[in-house]
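Data availability excerpt. The first of two example chains:
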Amino acid sequence: MRARLRPLLHLAGALLLLAGHAPAQAAAPLEELALQAAQPVDGMAAGNLSGLARCADGRFWAVSDREDAQLYRLQPADGHWQATAEAFAAPPPPPSALPWGLRMGNRLLTPLRGGALDFEGLSCDGAGNRYLLSESQLAVLQLPAFGAPHWLPLPPELLRQARARGLLLHFNALLEGLAVQPDGQRLWLAAERESRGLLAVQRGGERWRCANGGCVLLAQAGRAPRPLDGPGSAAQPLDFAALSWHAERLYSLERLQHRICRRDPHSGAVERCWSFAAAALTPERRYDTPYGVAEALWLDESAAWIGLDNGDQANAGGERRPLILQLQAPAGGWSGRREHPIRRAGPWRARLEQTSF
């Protein structure tokens, strides 16, 4: 029996060897989203647009990571957005469970940068409550439609589980995105980079707890080149910059790769991505920075709005105000399937070195 099987085993081994040396196919390019408008924001004195949302009343709101006591209502004007400040008084944040080194780094940076709470995300629920994500405190502030602002009592195991999976380990690379289910019963948080990840908590009465299976949906390390980088350029860490919820799906803004991805809200698994590189990286809209500047995302069935946090730096066209890019939704809608599925990754994709753990 062994003698008769030996030729078949040799053949199988040869086929596997050939498969291992078969030429890799290139990945199909992502569909580019068409630009509808690119308009500056007037009235944000400190700039640094770091969060964007459209609430149930149809109004757009924005937040700056340099200001702890106000957010901005945005209204379309003649060729720009006009920002009007709305003040609020945040109570003292809950005690931080971050390690001493990260807490001290945030405290030392505040006088230089401004914005001790470092708001990096903004979302709304269907009742008109607004939610602000503080990166420095790893906390979520609710601005209720009626009543005083208060911090949500997030579960202490959120940080423990995240750090055990390699998330929230580095200064200035903590939480960067927030999405809220319309009924206000579930929150998603994005860990920015090194490693990047998606976290979820859900409400049970007056308490918040980790979603079924734990707080961490996805933890992912890896690196990738920027869209305009040439061959041999150094790859940068993968990141998440913002989150948005639409039609039972989670959408991530991925700043480095200039793309929006639809993700499964229960696992964080990517389902489909679209590129906005062509719209954001025209010669006049480029910024002299090694990193992307896309920081805020909101989308509906018709379009996606991306806010650029340019840090008061002018782009190549001389515009120093924050910009909001309005991108048309894909022809098949955000829930549509790709007509030509992505093929196996080619050699350049290997540079991603992605690892989920």
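And the second chain:
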Amino acid sequence: MPAHILQEISGSYSATTTITAPPSGGQQNGGEKFEKNPHHWGADVRPEIKDDLYDPTYQDEEGPPPKLEYVWRNIILMALLHVGALYGITLVPSCKVYTCLFAYLYYVISALGITAGAHRLWSHRTYKARLPLRLFLIIANTMAFQNDVYEWARDHRAHHKFSETHADPHNSRRGFFFSHVGWLLVRKHPAVKEKGGKLDMSDLKAEKLVMSRGVYYKPGLLLMCFILPTLVPWYCWGETFVNSLCVSTFLRYAVVLNATWLVNSAAHLYGYRPYDKNISSRENILVSMGAVGEGFHNYHHAFPYDYSASEYRWHINFTTFFITAWLPWAWLTIGRECPRPLS
């Protein structure tokens, strides 16, 4: 990266470091325990992000959990999607090379709509993007079809602030299946609705691009997530319709979903915790590979305002590479890096 860009980023805040080299301590010390990070509790952070930092004072109310209410529409649709995706796996050898490349490219762009868009830009405000990049990311987010940006960000802020409680939409204490996909198959816990409804979402409510979801989101997701990836291979290079539907659409979409869900499940249950052993989120390299950089999860929950979501920057983190790649064209301004954890 050009030196003037590094200076611009590192010079913006007195308590930051450059984005190139990992610290002398950290993960290289074999998971050495770091001192508790005061930023979890809202000390010395930007006021606008305090509402999505971990709140250790919140505790679940005592009493029996409410009865599960199954959302049968979601159960049936998810089952059909994964049956189509499994069939798509058997069709991959018969697909044209262009179809496989197109499906992979679509997967990467869709994933960036979640990781660089709904997550790091709109949920955590870790950087500021100008209109061309925001347009690209909201289109990519629509391709991913994981709820609109506003709902995704609201649930994610609740996940950070009330992590591993009933107010966490995908509470990993309820098991791998629930935190992976089960939370989408049942009605939300009353605590999720109550606490999520009290979060400060004024920043997103003020952004017309995000709040236009009521008009454009449903027709947009049908076009971008299902119709376009099915028709392009079929029409442009003569792929069979079944191959286009089951591989480019069903299989690709299922992979994007499960890669994202693994951040909620596997990255909260399997891995190591070098930054804060008092929280359940963990460093999981395999998740990071599938979720284009989102698997450094213990770090991310310790420092949610770092645009890189990892102390290693570009290492197994395509999302960070994508964000920083826009810098020379001045489409974005890095908002803040985190201070290094204390050894």
